Structure formats: structure tokens, C-alpha cells
Amino acid sequence: MRQSILLLLLGLCVCSIYSSEESTFREVCYVGLGCFSTRGNFYDSVNRPIQVLPQDPDRIRPTFALYTRRNVNTAQNLVYNNRDSVSKSNFRSNVPTKIVIHGFTGNGNSDWNQSMKRALLNEGDYNVIQLDWSRGSGFPFTQATANTRVVGALVAQFIVWLESNFGANRENFHLIGHSLGAHVSGYAGERLNTRNKKLGRISGLDPAGPYFENTHPEVRLDPTDARFVDAIHTDGDSTLSIIKLSGGFGLMQPVGHVDFYPNGGKSQPNCNEPPSGSVGGIIGGTVWRMTCSHNRVQQVMVSTILNPRKNYRAYPCSSYEDFKAGRCRTCGTTGCASMGMRAGEWNPNGRVNVKMFLDTAGTAPFASLE
Q1: Who wins on pLDDT, 25 or 323?
Q2: Which helix (H) or strand (E) holds 85?
Q3: Coiled-coil segments, which residues (predicted)?
Q4: Would you state the pLDDT for residue 239?
Q5: Residue 257 bears catalytic tag
Q6: Which of 102, 137, 206, 235 is catalytic?
Q7: Do 289 and 274 form a contact (C-beta atoms < 8 A)?
Q8: pLDDT at res. 147
Q9: 68: DSSP letter
Q10: Are the CB atoms for 263 and 235 separated by under 8 Å?
């Protein structure tokens, strides 16, 4: 992980000085998924200086590991177009399904994924599916960003197959994606949107900023990708902060029906120095500081599931500065929302990109300080 972060820095530096016509305006097509092009909205010489096509799905080969209350600790692998893999599993189409999607250099068996799985199954009777696309999520970052498009298409294809063969309903699916995984969720949702049906919910956990911020909605997670889209921003400082080794892997741009900005959304408390003895050496400490705020959102989301009675109430406000000045301490006509798992209880009433702010503690359960 540490080496991958340092390689990401190198990749971003290269991207900032290199843009080639040879890497522009290309297209690749994959059976069953359609064509992917670097034309149109995906061509952005400022925000996406290197144009890369997604790799072959047979190379990425994402896996879908099912956990339920009947098999909390042992995964059952669901395989697209293999009916037995589903019919002989504990998957039930009549209960809600949560798909957890990791980000850059992650994998479906990480500590965070396992914590999320356990928290979800403790909270409700769900199908919890851990998506592992680690064969496509590694360095270079530019290739991983491109691969999110194919992975999103494969997720959508998988959900449609479950609908057609096992009576599942996309409206009952909730995709929870961290970093690049948030945009994987968006691409899946975009493909699942029809005149009469939409994906139920997407929760974007600190959606990745580099190569996505200030791009067209087609390129990133946006409110049209599901019935309800909520996002939590914890590491939205500028990309320059990455070069300065102080974070900035997320984005500040609102991408959901409601966007939560704990502690302002740029960085998180207790992320300046690692806990004593938790990491080793200068490099370890530097990587910890760089990734602490970006990864904090994983702990925050899990905490909101495990602690439903804790206060995670956020207030609608135009900016963190106004919030800190005390100008937004009422819920007003927009209404307050609870950050995290219970965000879905908030009714957008046709609104999108509603910004919500709160200050939280720097340790678990990361509840509001009010």
C-alpha cells in the first residue's frame, strides 16, 4: 500500500506534464458491455491530461463474494452466467443487497471491507456482496481510473442478470463505494437507469478527486445515478496537497442528492501525526498522514452503522465558514440529515447537491460534537 501511494504521486506528477495526441480519441469495445471511448466528455485536457482506455474485463476479472447472516465468515462466490453459483448460495432476492466496492490499490478482503460486512450483517438481514476488482485497481492510477468504467459496467450487467434469473430488483440494491469505488458505483447506476427503474442507492465514501473533480457528470458519480445518492467528503483538499504529502485524494465538489462535509471535508482531526507505535519510519508516517483523512471515511461509515443512536446530524449550509460562524444551526426548510447509514431517511424533495456540515470527534465513533 505504501509503495502504491508513492507510485501514485509519481504518476500524478507525470500526468501533470504529459499529454499526447497519440493517447487521445481512441475506442475499445467489449462483448456484452459496449464501447468505451476517450472522446466526448471523457476528453478533458485539464482535469484528465492522459487519456487511457479501460483494460479487458477478462484481465480485471472482478469477483463477487456473498456474505449473509447464514455465512458471516465464509464467502460464497457468485459468478455471472453461472446459475448454480447463485441458486446454491444463501442469496435471497427478497432482502436488500449491499455491494461494497473498494478503491485504488484495495481489495475485497481488506480490514475495512470485513468491518463493513460485519457491521451491515449486525444491523440488518442483507445480502452483502464484496466486490474485488484488485486486478484492475492498481498502479498506474490513470489506468485504474479508466478501469472503473468497465468494472461499473460489469456490476450493472451482474445486477441485471440477477434480476432476469432470480427475481432481484435493482431498486433494492445499495452500492457503497470508497474513493474510485464511488465512481464504479456511479457507472453501474448510470447503466441501470431506465424509464421505469433505477438503482436504489449509492453511498460515495470520499469519492476520488484526481481525474474526476470538475468533470462532466457522465465521467463521475452524480445524483442521476440512483434514486438516492449520498456522499461523505473527508479529504477534499486540493490536489496540490498530494504533492505536498498532506492528502487531497478526495473532492469537494458535491456529487449527490446530499453531500456531507464532516469538519469541513478537507481534512480530519487527529490526522496530523500517527498514533505512537502504529507505523514505522519516516515513510510510514508520511503515508499515514497522506491517507488518514481519505481512509477515515471508512471508519465513519462503519461507526454510523454500529452506533445508530449516536448523533451524526448535519446541517444544511452554503459553506463550512458559514457553519462555523453559527449561521446554519437550524435545519430550516431543507431539513437536517444524519450522515452515513441513516442518510437515506432524508427526503431530497427534488433537490440535488445539498451541502451538509457537522463537526465530529477525531476518534471512534466519530459522532457530532454538538
Answers
A1: 323
A2: helix 83-87
A3: none
A4: 60
A5: no
A6: 206
A7: yes
A8: 99
A9: E
A10: no
Q: Which of 110, 134, 137, 179 is catalytic?
A: 179
**Residue 179 designated active-site:** yes
β-pair partners for 136:
none
Q: In this prediction, what percent of the chain has a pLDDT beyond 70?
A: 87
Q: Helix, strand, or coil here: 8?
A: helix
Q: Of residues 59 and 285, which shows the higher confidence score?
A: 59
Domains and CATH numbers, the chain: 63-137+149-358 (3.40.50.1820)
Among the listed ranges 95-109, 168-182, 286-300, which one has the minimum average pLDDT value?
Answer: 286-300
pLDDT, tens digit, 9 for 90 and up, residues 207-240? 999 999 999 999 999 999 999 999 999 999 866 5
What is the distance between the alpha carbons of residues 215 and 199, in angstroms, rounded to a whole number?
22
Q: Which residue has the cell 455491494?
A: 99
Cβ count near 262 (within 10 Å): 27
Residue type, position 368, single letter: S
Compute CA 110 distance to the chain's CA centroid, rounded to the nearest angstrom.
Answer: 15
Residue 8 has pLDDT above 80, yes or no: no
Q: 316-341: b or e for each residue (b if 16 or more CB lie within 10 Å)?
A: bbeebeebeeeebeeeeebbebbbbb
> Rounded to an integer, what distance in angstroms lies between the CA atom of residue 265 and that of residue 243?
19
Distance of CA 251 to the CA centre of its chain: 12
Secondary structure of residue 14 in the 3-state scheme: helix
Half-sphere exposure of 283 (CA within 13 A, CB side): 7
Asked if 294 is an active-site residue, the reply is: yes
Upstream peptide bond of 365 is cis (omega within 30 degrees of 0): yes
Cell of 107: 481489495
Candidates 174, 233, 294, 303; catalytic one: 294
Average pLDDT over residues 248-270: 97
